[in-house]
Design a protein that fits this description.
globular, mainly alpha, 2 domains
Length: 145
Amino acid sequence: MKLCIESNARQCSSFAAEVALKAFEPRWLRFLVAGAVNSVVTYVVYLGLLQFVDYRVAYTLSFVLGILFSYWMNAAFVFRKAVSLRTFLSFPLVYLAQYVLGVLLLSVAVEWLGIAPWLAPLLVLAITVPLTFFLSLTVFGERKA
């Protein structure tokens, strides 16, 4: 990768393009696709369960099934790793960290910054999704803890 030190605009734009490509590496894109698929599957399961159980039970069951499905998608599709007991037991901690940080950021956004409750979760996602990706990298042994 060439550094953008020279005044040559072509080299500078080449450097910027290389940085942009690194940001959209295939694993990151697979992570986003897996997250979208998981969200749809979890929502469909939730809607199906609503036909038989209370919404709180439906939410809890679909959330747990969503974690299991997400684990499988991340292992098989995103990181292309074999399923193991260590990663299986560690993976829910990623969701716990995402949830705790998300609730804190949501409270700050709504209560302190005055951001509308319907908009605040989108801003929270902009922070928690990259965090979840990097925590997942650690769980699947792609980077050191």
